[in-house]
Design a protein that fits this description.
Layout (H helix, E strand, L loop, with lengths): L2 H23 L5 H11 L11 H15 L4 H18 L6 E3 L1 H4 L8 E7 L2 H10 L5 E10 L8 E13 L2 E9 L18 E2 L1 H10 L8
Parallel strand pairs: 2-5
Antiparallel strand pairs: 1-2, 1-6, 3-4, 4-5
Helix pairs in contact: 1-2, 1-3, 4-7
Length: 216
């Protein structure tokens, strides 16, 4: 490996480690934002030196193993238990947990991401209002499989997001149409299909503490 390539590799690793620290400790959920911020802090302006999301995710796992080996399992249990309670309340909308709380990379007070499948956004909002649960409205762009395309390439699709203030951090409810149940969203770190867990699967996870496999 040349000196230039070696230096570039070192920078990528340093940025990945700094970004991982931010995501683990500060609750940052956006890979791109964390990488750019870490790059700026390290004086790196060349976008070609930024690590991939997968490299950052691996550093997050290593960070938790090194610095949070004692408390992270309990933090994850609390986040997953809180997610389960919300999912049971919203059972009529076929909720599925996804993201860092499911795959085990979430730090304390991390965002919890739950997918809901409903006939309309208004239906979910009315339910939350009837339960006297305050929420904020936002939206998120997902990459999803498009089986209707001949090349089967993914496309970007926006989904409304209802944000609840959970005991252990924000809970974000992305609302999809019922027909989207079988549509796979893409994992932010590696582009594979994101792993999801329904209520029964999350209950089994909490009882067994079996790690969730990486996204396919």
């Amino acid at each position: 490996m040349s000196k230039e390539n070696s230096r570039s590799h070192e920078l990528r690793q340093l940025i990945a480690q700094r970004a991982a620290s931010m995501m683990a400790e500060d609750g940052i959920a956006d890979y791109a934002y964390a990488k750019k911020k870490a790059g700026r802090q390290l004086g790196v302006l060349d976008m070609n030196c930024l690590p991939t999301n997968a490299e950052v995710e691996e550093e997050i796992r290593l960070y938790h193993e090194i610095y949070h080996s004692e408390d992270q399992p309990e933090n994850l249990r609390q986040l997953r238990s809180s997610a389960l309670a919300v999912m049971q309340l919203l059972q009529r909308f076929n909720p599925h947990l996804t993201g860092p709380v499911l795959d085990g990379t979430a730090g304390r007070y991390a965002e919890t991401h739950i997918f809901l499948f409903a006939d309309s956004l208004k239906e979910v909002e009315i339910f939350l209002l009837n339960q006297q649960l305050p929420y904020e409205v936002s939206e998120k762009t997902y990459r999803v499989n498009n089986d209707k395309r001949a090349d089967k390439k993914s496309e970007r699709r926006k989904a409304p997001v209802l944000i609840l203030e959970g005991q252990h951090g924000p809970i974000k409810l992305s609302v999809f149409e019922v027909d989207d149940m079988r549509t796979a969203t893409k994992h932010a770190s590696n582009g594979g299909n994101a792993v999801k867990a329904n209520i029964a699967q999350l209950q089994a996870l909490l009882q067994s503490a079996t790690p969730i496999p990486p996204a396919l």
